[in-house]
Amino acid sequence: MAEWPDVALGDLVDIKHGFAFQGEFFRDDPPGDVLLTPGNFAIGGGFKGDKLKYYVGLVPEEYVLSAGDLIVTMTDLSKEGDTLGYPAIVPSSSDRFLHNQRIGKVLGLGSRADMRFLYYLLCTREYRNEVLASATGTTVKHTAPSRITAFRLALPPLPTQQGIAEILRALDDKIELNRRMNQTLESMARAIFRSWFVDFDPVVAKAEGRQPFGMSADVAALFPSALIRSQAGQIPSGWSTVNVGSVTEIKRQGINPGEFPNESFDHYSIPAFDESRMPKRESGASIKSNKFIVPPQTVLLSKLNPRFPRVWLPEIDSIHRPVCSTEFIVSEPKPGVSREFMYCLFGSLAFAESFSGLVTGTSGSHQRVKPEDLLHMKVIQPPQALTAHFAQLVGPMLKRNSALTEESITLSRMRDTLLPKLMSGELRIRDAEKLVGTHV
Q1: Residues of the chain falling short of pLDDT 70
Q2: Nearest in space to 250 (alpha carbons), one of 371, 377, 373
Q3: Any residues with CB less than 8 A from the CB of 278 and at least 6 apart, and which?
Q4: Inter-residue contact 89 to 110 (CB < 8 Å)
Q5: Which of 277, 410, 289, 249 is nearest to 347 (CA)?
Q6: Which residue of 37, 124, 150, 225 sits 20 to 30 Å from the alpha carbon of 367, by its own alpha carbon?
Q7: Contact assessment for residue 299 and residue 269, using Cβ atoms and an 8 Å cutoff
Q8: What is the pLDDT of residue 1?
Q9: Reported pTM
Protein backbone atom coordinates (compact mmCIF):
# COMPACT_ATOMS: atom_id res chain seq x y z
CA MET A 1 0.00 0.00 0.00
CA ALA A 2 1.08 3.58 -0.61
CA GLU A 3 1.71 4.28 3.09
CA TRP A 4 4.00 1.28 3.57
CA PRO A 5 7.67 2.42 3.53
CA ASP A 6 10.00 1.11 0.83
CA VAL A 7 12.94 -0.72 2.42
CA ALA A 8 15.72 -3.08 1.42
CA LEU A 9 15.67 -6.57 2.91
CA GLY A 10 19.13 -5.77 4.23
CA ASP A 11 17.59 -3.09 6.47
CA LEU A 12 15.74 -5.89 8.27
CA VAL A 13 18.02 -8.93 8.24
CA ASP A 14 21.54 -10.22 7.79
CA ILE A 15 22.34 -13.59 6.20
CA LYS A 16 25.01 -15.84 7.68
CA HIS A 17 26.93 -18.37 5.58
CA GLY A 18 27.01 -22.01 6.69
CA PHE A 19 30.00 -24.14 7.66
CA ALA A 20 32.03 -26.36 5.28
CA PHE A 21 31.58 -29.69 7.03
CA GLN A 22 34.09 -32.40 6.10
CA GLY A 23 32.85 -34.86 3.47
CA GLU A 24 34.57 -37.85 5.07
CA PHE A 25 32.01 -37.72 7.90
CA PHE A 26 28.91 -37.64 5.65
CA ARG A 27 26.45 -40.54 5.85
CA ASP A 28 23.30 -41.43 3.92
CA ASP A 29 21.70 -43.10 6.94
CA PRO A 30 21.52 -42.52 10.72
CA PRO A 31 23.03 -42.18 13.22
CA GLY A 32 24.36 -38.64 13.13
CA ASP A 33 23.26 -35.03 12.96
CA VAL A 34 21.12 -33.95 10.00
CA LEU A 35 23.22 -31.97 7.54
CA LEU A 36 20.87 -29.69 5.59
CA THR A 37 21.47 -29.29 1.86
CA PRO A 38 19.68 -27.48 -1.01
CA GLY A 39 17.87 -30.79 -1.60
CA ASN A 40 15.97 -30.23 1.66
CA PHE A 41 14.18 -27.20 0.17
CA ALA A 42 10.90 -27.61 -1.67
CA ILE A 43 10.30 -25.90 -5.00
CA GLY A 44 8.33 -22.79 -4.08
CA GLY A 45 9.61 -22.77 -0.49
CA GLY A 46 9.35 -25.10 2.47
CA PHE A 47 11.27 -27.91 4.14
CA LYS A 48 11.66 -31.44 2.75
CA GLY A 49 12.74 -34.24 5.04
CA ASP A 50 12.54 -37.27 2.76
CA LYS A 51 16.20 -37.50 1.69
CA LEU A 52 18.38 -36.48 4.61
CA LYS A 53 22.16 -36.47 4.89
CA TYR A 54 23.85 -37.26 8.21
CA TYR A 55 27.12 -36.08 9.77
CA VAL A 56 29.14 -37.91 12.42
CA GLY A 57 32.09 -35.51 12.86
CA LEU A 58 32.68 -32.75 15.39
CA VAL A 59 30.29 -29.80 15.08
CA PRO A 60 30.96 -26.13 15.95
CA GLU A 61 28.05 -25.12 18.20
CA GLU A 62 27.42 -21.88 16.32
CA TYR A 63 26.42 -23.95 13.28
CA VAL A 64 23.71 -25.93 15.07
CA LEU A 65 20.28 -24.73 13.95
CA SER A 66 17.20 -24.36 16.15
CA ALA A 67 13.58 -25.16 15.40
CA GLY A 68 11.96 -22.12 13.79
CA ASP A 69 15.17 -20.75 12.24
CA LEU A 70 14.68 -19.22 8.79
CA ILE A 71 17.14 -20.53 6.20
CA VAL A 72 17.60 -19.92 2.47
CA THR A 73 19.41 -21.73 -0.37
CA MET A 74 22.53 -20.04 -1.73
CA THR A 75 23.36 -22.69 -4.37
CA ASP A 76 21.02 -24.84 -6.40
CA LEU A 77 22.05 -28.48 -6.22
CA SER A 78 18.60 -30.04 -6.10
CA LYS A 79 18.03 -32.80 -8.66
CA GLU A 80 14.26 -32.27 -8.60
CA GLY A 81 14.27 -28.66 -9.77
CA ASP A 82 15.70 -25.21 -9.23
CA THR A 83 15.40 -24.15 -5.55
CA LEU A 84 17.90 -21.25 -5.55
CA GLY A 85 16.93 -18.55 -3.08
CA TYR A 86 13.90 -20.33 -1.68
CA PRO A 87 13.33 -20.34 2.10
CA ALA A 88 12.52 -23.02 4.65
CA ILE A 89 11.75 -23.09 8.35
CA VAL A 90 13.78 -25.56 10.44
CA PRO A 91 11.20 -28.01 11.85
CA SER A 92 10.81 -29.25 15.40
CA SER A 93 12.48 -32.64 15.62
CA SER A 94 14.42 -34.96 17.88
CA ASP A 95 17.23 -34.67 15.31
CA ARG A 96 19.86 -31.95 15.50
CA PHE A 97 20.06 -29.90 12.27
CA LEU A 98 23.35 -28.44 11.05
CA HIS A 99 23.92 -25.18 9.17
CA ASN A 100 25.80 -26.40 6.11
CA GLN A 101 27.63 -24.36 3.47
CA ARG A 102 25.46 -23.22 0.54
CA ILE A 103 22.71 -22.52 3.09
CA GLY A 104 22.13 -19.04 4.51
CA LYS A 105 20.67 -18.42 7.97
CA VAL A 106 18.47 -15.33 8.13
CA LEU A 107 19.20 -13.20 11.22
CA GLY A 108 16.83 -10.43 12.21
CA LEU A 109 18.15 -6.90 12.77
CA GLY A 110 15.95 -5.27 15.39
CA SER A 111 12.22 -5.88 15.68
CA ARG A 112 10.81 -4.31 12.52
CA ALA A 113 10.13 -7.62 10.75
CA ASP A 114 8.29 -10.82 11.62
CA MET A 115 10.34 -13.87 10.60
CA ARG A 116 7.34 -15.86 9.39
CA PHE A 117 6.30 -12.88 7.26
CA LEU A 118 9.80 -12.81 5.77
CA TYR A 119 9.54 -16.53 5.01
CA TYR A 120 6.49 -15.83 2.84
CA LEU A 121 8.16 -12.77 1.32
CA LEU A 122 10.96 -15.07 0.12
CA CYS A 123 8.32 -17.24 -1.58
CA THR A 124 7.00 -14.41 -3.76
CA ARG A 125 7.52 -14.32 -7.51
CA GLU A 126 9.00 -10.80 -7.39
CA TYR A 127 11.75 -11.89 -4.99
CA ARG A 128 12.33 -15.09 -6.92
CA ASN A 129 12.72 -13.27 -10.24
CA GLU A 130 15.26 -10.88 -8.77
CA VAL A 131 17.36 -13.65 -7.23
CA LEU A 132 17.45 -15.57 -10.51
CA ALA A 133 18.27 -12.44 -12.49
CA SER A 134 21.32 -11.72 -10.32
CA ALA A 135 22.50 -15.34 -9.99
CA THR A 136 25.87 -16.47 -11.32
CA GLY A 137 26.74 -19.78 -12.98
CA THR A 138 25.05 -21.73 -15.74
CA THR A 139 24.81 -25.43 -14.87
CA VAL A 140 24.86 -24.69 -11.12
CA LYS A 141 23.47 -21.32 -10.05
CA HIS A 142 24.76 -19.35 -7.08
CA THR A 143 23.59 -16.32 -5.18
CA ALA A 144 25.06 -14.33 -2.29
CA PRO A 145 23.74 -12.64 0.86
CA SER A 146 24.28 -9.22 -0.71
CA ARG A 147 22.09 -10.12 -3.70
CA ILE A 148 19.31 -11.39 -1.48
CA THR A 149 19.41 -8.47 0.95
CA ALA A 150 19.32 -5.99 -1.96
CA PHE A 151 15.70 -6.98 -2.63
CA ARG A 152 13.32 -4.10 -1.88
CA LEU A 153 9.81 -4.35 -0.49
CA ALA A 154 6.94 -2.28 0.83
CA LEU A 155 7.07 -3.07 4.56
CA PRO A 156 3.70 -3.34 6.34
CA PRO A 157 3.40 -2.47 10.04
CA LEU A 158 4.42 -5.34 12.31
CA PRO A 159 0.83 -6.29 13.30
CA THR A 160 -0.08 -6.46 9.60
CA GLN A 161 2.96 -8.63 8.89
CA GLN A 162 1.91 -10.98 11.67
CA GLY A 163 -1.67 -11.09 10.36
CA ILE A 164 -0.50 -11.92 6.84
CA ALA A 165 1.80 -14.63 8.17
CA GLU A 166 -0.94 -16.19 10.29
CA ILE A 167 -3.35 -16.43 7.36
CA LEU A 168 -0.80 -18.10 5.09
CA ARG A 169 0.50 -20.28 7.91
CA ALA A 170 -3.02 -21.57 8.64
CA LEU A 171 -3.18 -22.87 5.08
CA ASP A 172 0.30 -24.42 5.27
CA ASP A 173 -0.49 -26.01 8.64
CA LYS A 174 -3.61 -27.65 7.21
CA ILE A 175 -1.61 -28.91 4.21
CA GLU A 176 1.00 -30.35 6.59
CA LEU A 177 -1.72 -31.97 8.73
CA ASN A 178 -3.17 -33.56 5.60
CA ARG A 179 0.28 -34.83 4.65
CA ARG A 180 0.75 -36.48 8.04
CA MET A 181 -2.71 -38.03 7.93
CA ASN A 182 -1.90 -39.36 4.46
CA GLN A 183 1.31 -40.89 5.76
CA THR A 184 -0.64 -42.64 8.50
CA LEU A 185 -3.32 -43.91 6.12
CA GLU A 186 -0.77 -45.17 3.63
CA SER A 187 1.30 -46.81 6.36
CA MET A 188 -1.80 -48.65 7.56
CA ALA A 189 -2.58 -49.91 4.06
CA ARG A 190 1.01 -51.02 3.48
CA ALA A 191 1.15 -52.73 6.90
CA ILE A 192 -1.93 -54.79 6.08
CA PHE A 193 -0.46 -55.70 2.68
CA ARG A 194 2.81 -56.81 4.24
CA SER A 195 1.06 -58.84 6.93
CA TRP A 196 -1.22 -60.63 4.47
CA PHE A 197 0.85 -60.94 1.30
CA VAL A 198 4.51 -60.80 2.35
CA ASP A 199 4.82 -62.19 5.88
CA PHE A 200 1.66 -64.35 5.53
CA ASP A 201 0.79 -63.74 9.19
CA PRO A 202 -2.78 -65.14 8.96
CA VAL A 203 -1.49 -68.32 7.29
CA VAL A 204 1.23 -68.77 9.91
CA ALA A 205 -1.31 -68.27 12.70
CA LYS A 206 -3.68 -70.86 11.26
CA ALA A 207 -0.83 -73.31 10.71
CA GLU A 208 0.00 -72.98 14.41
CA GLY A 209 -3.63 -73.48 15.41
CA ARG A 210 -4.20 -69.83 16.33
CA GLN A 211 -6.92 -67.42 15.27
CA PRO A 212 -5.34 -64.65 13.11
CA PHE A 213 -5.07 -61.52 15.22
CA GLY A 214 -7.71 -58.82 14.70
CA MET A 215 -9.48 -60.75 11.97
CA SER A 216 -13.02 -62.10 11.77
CA ALA A 217 -13.62 -65.77 11.12
CA ASP A 218 -15.07 -65.00 7.68
CA VAL A 219 -11.91 -63.19 6.58
CA ALA A 220 -9.62 -65.78 8.20
CA ALA A 221 -11.39 -68.45 6.16
CA LEU A 222 -10.03 -66.82 2.98
CA PHE A 223 -6.49 -67.80 3.99
CA PRO A 224 -5.09 -71.35 3.81
CA SER A 225 -3.57 -72.99 6.86
CA ALA A 226 -0.26 -74.14 5.37
CA LEU A 227 2.78 -72.86 3.51
CA ILE A 228 4.33 -74.76 0.61
CA ARG A 229 7.63 -74.51 -1.22
CA SER A 230 7.80 -72.74 -4.57
CA GLN A 231 10.35 -71.10 -6.86
CA ALA A 232 9.67 -67.91 -4.90
CA GLY A 233 10.27 -69.63 -1.55
CA GLN A 234 7.56 -70.44 0.98
CA ILE A 235 4.11 -69.31 -0.18
CA PRO A 236 0.58 -70.08 1.06
CA SER A 237 -0.99 -73.28 -0.21
CA GLY A 238 -3.18 -72.68 -3.25
CA TRP A 239 -1.49 -69.40 -4.20
CA SER A 240 0.59 -69.10 -7.36
CA THR A 241 3.70 -67.36 -8.68
CA VAL A 242 3.10 -65.40 -11.89
CA ASN A 243 4.72 -62.75 -14.09
CA VAL A 244 3.71 -59.14 -13.44
CA GLY A 245 2.44 -59.17 -17.03
CA SER A 246 -0.23 -61.66 -15.94
CA VAL A 247 -1.78 -59.17 -13.52
CA THR A 248 -1.27 -55.79 -15.19
CA GLU A 249 -1.04 -54.15 -18.62
CA ILE A 250 1.18 -51.20 -19.56
CA LYS A 251 -0.63 -48.30 -21.25
CA ARG A 252 1.38 -46.16 -23.66
CA GLN A 253 -1.09 -43.73 -25.25
CA GLY A 254 0.90 -40.57 -25.87
CA ILE A 255 -0.01 -36.92 -26.26
CA ASN A 256 1.81 -33.69 -27.05
CA PRO A 257 0.20 -31.12 -24.70
CA GLY A 258 1.83 -28.34 -26.72
CA GLU A 259 -0.71 -29.01 -29.45
CA PHE A 260 -3.37 -27.85 -26.98
CA PRO A 261 -1.72 -24.64 -25.68
CA ASN A 262 -4.84 -23.21 -24.03
CA GLU A 263 -5.94 -26.41 -22.29
CA SER A 264 -5.12 -27.03 -18.62
CA PHE A 265 -3.68 -30.44 -17.81
CA ASP A 266 -3.06 -32.22 -14.52
CA HIS A 267 0.62 -33.05 -14.93
CA TYR A 268 1.98 -36.01 -12.96
CA SER A 269 5.74 -35.40 -13.07
CA ILE A 270 8.74 -36.66 -11.12
CA PRO A 271 9.33 -33.22 -9.49
CA ALA A 272 5.63 -32.96 -8.55
CA PHE A 273 5.77 -36.38 -6.88
CA ASP A 274 8.94 -35.53 -4.97
CA GLU A 275 7.62 -32.14 -3.89
CA SER A 276 4.13 -33.01 -2.68
CA ARG A 277 2.69 -36.05 -4.48
CA MET A 278 0.23 -33.65 -6.03
CA PRO A 279 -0.02 -33.13 -9.81
CA LYS A 280 0.66 -29.66 -11.15
CA ARG A 281 -2.06 -27.96 -13.15
CA GLU A 282 -0.27 -26.58 -16.19
CA SER A 283 -1.24 -25.22 -19.57
CA GLY A 284 -0.41 -27.24 -22.65
CA ALA A 285 1.83 -24.39 -23.79
CA SER A 286 4.03 -24.79 -20.70
CA ILE A 287 4.52 -28.57 -21.04
CA LYS A 288 7.45 -28.92 -23.42
CA SER A 289 7.59 -32.64 -24.27
CA ASN A 290 5.39 -35.61 -25.09
CA LYS A 291 3.56 -37.28 -22.22
CA PHE A 292 1.47 -40.35 -21.52
CA ILE A 293 -2.26 -40.02 -21.01
CA VAL A 294 -3.27 -41.38 -17.58
CA PRO A 295 -6.45 -43.51 -17.86
CA PRO A 296 -8.73 -44.08 -14.85
CA GLN A 297 -7.92 -46.95 -12.48
CA THR A 298 -4.21 -46.99 -13.23
CA VAL A 299 -1.11 -46.97 -11.03
CA LEU A 300 2.02 -44.96 -11.92
CA LEU A 301 5.41 -46.54 -11.25
CA SER A 302 8.59 -44.58 -11.92
CA LYS A 303 11.20 -46.42 -14.00
CA LEU A 304 13.81 -43.71 -13.26
CA ASN A 305 16.29 -44.33 -10.43
CA PRO A 306 14.16 -47.02 -8.75
CA ARG A 307 16.34 -46.94 -5.64
CA PHE A 308 14.07 -43.95 -4.84
CA PRO A 309 10.64 -45.67 -5.17
CA ARG A 310 7.91 -43.51 -6.67
CA VAL A 311 4.46 -45.13 -6.83
CA TRP A 312 1.45 -42.91 -7.50
CA LEU A 313 -2.28 -43.62 -7.28
CA PRO A 314 -3.77 -40.87 -9.48
CA GLU A 315 -7.24 -39.49 -8.89
CA ILE A 316 -8.61 -38.46 -12.26
CA ASP A 317 -10.31 -35.08 -12.60
CA SER A 318 -13.38 -35.16 -14.84
CA ILE A 319 -12.53 -31.74 -16.27
CA HIS A 320 -8.74 -31.60 -16.68
CA ARG A 321 -6.98 -34.26 -18.71
CA PRO A 322 -4.29 -36.08 -16.73
CA VAL A 323 -0.88 -36.64 -18.30
CA CYS A 324 2.31 -38.02 -16.86
CA SER A 325 6.01 -37.99 -17.51
CA THR A 326 7.25 -40.77 -19.78
CA GLU A 327 9.54 -41.68 -16.86
CA PHE A 328 6.44 -43.31 -15.34
CA ILE A 329 5.15 -46.74 -16.31
CA VAL A 330 1.36 -46.47 -16.58
CA SER A 331 0.07 -49.76 -15.19
CA GLU A 332 -3.57 -50.85 -15.54
CA PRO A 333 -4.53 -53.92 -13.46
CA LYS A 334 -6.12 -56.73 -15.44
CA PRO A 335 -9.68 -57.89 -14.66
CA GLY A 336 -9.89 -59.53 -11.25
CA VAL A 337 -6.87 -57.60 -9.90
CA SER A 338 -7.62 -54.52 -7.81
CA ARG A 339 -5.82 -51.23 -8.22
CA GLU A 340 -5.35 -51.09 -4.44
CA PHE A 341 -3.51 -54.43 -4.50
CA MET A 342 -1.24 -53.30 -7.37
CA TYR A 343 -0.48 -50.00 -5.66
CA CYS A 344 0.58 -51.69 -2.42
CA LEU A 345 2.47 -54.40 -4.32
CA PHE A 346 4.52 -51.81 -6.24
CA GLY A 347 5.15 -49.91 -3.00
CA SER A 348 6.30 -52.93 -1.00
CA LEU A 349 9.94 -53.22 0.04
CA ALA A 350 10.35 -56.69 -1.47
CA PHE A 351 9.06 -55.50 -4.85
CA ALA A 352 11.21 -52.35 -4.75
CA GLU A 353 14.36 -54.37 -4.11
CA SER A 354 13.65 -56.72 -7.03
CA PHE A 355 12.62 -53.85 -9.31
CA SER A 356 15.84 -51.95 -8.53
CA GLY A 357 17.82 -55.00 -9.60
CA LEU A 358 16.53 -54.58 -13.16
CA VAL A 359 18.16 -51.20 -13.84
CA THR A 360 20.16 -50.43 -16.95
CA GLY A 361 22.69 -47.63 -17.27
CA THR A 362 25.75 -46.84 -15.19
CA SER A 363 25.08 -43.22 -14.25
CA GLY A 364 23.73 -43.00 -10.72
CA SER A 365 21.28 -40.28 -11.71
CA HIS A 366 19.97 -41.88 -14.92
CA GLN A 367 19.36 -45.52 -14.14
CA ARG A 368 16.13 -46.90 -15.56
CA VAL A 369 14.13 -50.11 -15.71
CA LYS A 370 12.75 -51.21 -19.06
CA PRO A 371 8.95 -51.60 -18.89
CA GLU A 372 9.21 -55.00 -20.59
CA ASP A 373 11.48 -56.20 -17.77
CA LEU A 374 8.83 -55.20 -15.25
CA LEU A 375 6.33 -57.48 -16.99
CA HIS A 376 8.67 -60.46 -16.58
CA MET A 377 9.14 -60.00 -12.82
CA LYS A 378 7.79 -62.77 -10.64
CA VAL A 379 5.15 -61.96 -8.01
CA ILE A 380 2.84 -63.98 -5.79
CA GLN A 381 -0.83 -63.98 -6.80
CA PRO A 382 -3.36 -64.64 -4.03
CA PRO A 383 -6.92 -65.80 -4.79
CA GLN A 384 -9.19 -63.16 -6.30
CA ALA A 385 -11.62 -63.30 -3.37
CA LEU A 386 -8.83 -62.33 -0.97
CA THR A 387 -7.48 -59.44 -3.05
CA ALA A 388 -11.06 -58.21 -3.50
CA HIS A 389 -11.51 -58.17 0.28
CA PHE A 390 -8.17 -56.40 0.65
CA ALA A 391 -9.43 -53.72 -1.75
CA GLN A 392 -12.62 -53.31 0.29
CA LEU A 393 -10.57 -52.90 3.47
CA VAL A 394 -7.86 -50.50 2.31
CA GLY A 395 -9.86 -48.80 -0.47
CA PRO A 396 -11.48 -46.28 1.95
CA MET A 397 -8.05 -45.47 3.39
CA LEU A 398 -6.63 -44.72 -0.03
CA LYS A 399 -9.75 -42.79 -1.06
CA ARG A 400 -9.44 -40.68 2.08
CA ASN A 401 -5.79 -40.19 1.17
CA SER A 402 -6.82 -38.97 -2.29
CA ALA A 403 -9.47 -36.64 -0.84
CA LEU A 404 -6.93 -35.08 1.51
CA THR A 405 -4.48 -34.70 -1.37
CA GLU A 406 -7.15 -32.95 -3.46
CA GLU A 407 -7.95 -30.67 -0.52
CA SER A 408 -4.25 -29.84 -0.19
CA ILE A 409 -4.11 -28.97 -3.88
CA THR A 410 -6.99 -26.52 -3.35
CA LEU A 411 -5.35 -25.05 -0.26
CA SER A 412 -1.96 -24.64 -1.94
CA ARG A 413 -3.56 -22.86 -4.90
CA MET A 414 -5.44 -20.59 -2.51
CA ARG A 415 -2.19 -19.81 -0.66
CA ASP A 416 -0.38 -19.05 -3.91
CA THR A 417 -3.23 -16.76 -4.99
CA LEU A 418 -3.43 -14.91 -1.67
CA LEU A 419 0.34 -14.49 -1.23
CA PRO A 420 0.98 -11.67 -3.76
CA LYS A 421 -2.32 -9.96 -2.97
CA LEU A 422 -1.58 -9.82 0.76
CA MET A 423 2.04 -8.79 0.27
CA SER A 424 1.04 -5.92 -1.98
CA GLY A 425 -1.85 -4.78 0.21
CA GLU A 426 -4.33 -5.43 -2.61
CA LEU A 427 -6.26 -7.77 -0.30
CA ARG A 428 -7.00 -6.81 3.29
CA ILE A 429 -6.41 -9.24 6.12
CA ARG A 430 -10.04 -9.42 7.24
CA ASP A 431 -11.19 -10.31 3.71
CA ALA A 432 -8.52 -13.00 3.43
CA GLU A 433 -9.53 -14.40 6.82
CA LYS A 434 -13.08 -14.89 5.57
CA LEU A 435 -11.85 -16.83 2.54
CA VAL A 436 -9.46 -18.99 4.52
CA GLY A 437 -11.90 -19.58 7.37
CA THR A 438 -14.17 -21.71 5.20
CA HIS A 439 -11.32 -24.14 4.43
CA VAL A 440 -9.31 -24.55 7.64
Answers
A1: 1-2, 77-81, 362-365
A2: 371
A3: 272, 405, 408, 409, 412
A4: no
A5: 277
A6: 37
A7: no
A8: 62
A9: 0.83
Q: What is the 3-state secondary structure (H, E, C) of the chain?
A: CCCCCEEEHHHCEEEEECECCCHHHEECCCCCEEECCHHHECCCCCECCCCCEEECCCCCHHHECCCCCEEEECECCCCCCCCCCCEEECCCCCCCEECECCEEEEEECCCCCCHHHHHHHCCCHHHHHHHHHHCECCCCCECCHHHHHCCEEECCCHHHHHHHHHHHHHHHHHHHHHHHHHHHHHHHHHHHHHHHHCCCHHHHHHHCCCCCCCCCHHHHCCCCCCEEEECCEEEECCCEEEEHHHCEEEECCEECHHHCCCCEEEEECHHHHHHHCCCEEEEHHHCCCCEEECCCCCEEEECECCCCCCEECCCCCCCCEEEECCCEEEEEECCCCCHHHHHHHHHCHHHHHHHHCCCECCCCCCCECCHHHHHCCEEEECCHHHHHHHHHHHHHHHHHHHHHHHHHHHHHHHHHHHHHHHHHCCCCHHHHHHHHHCCC
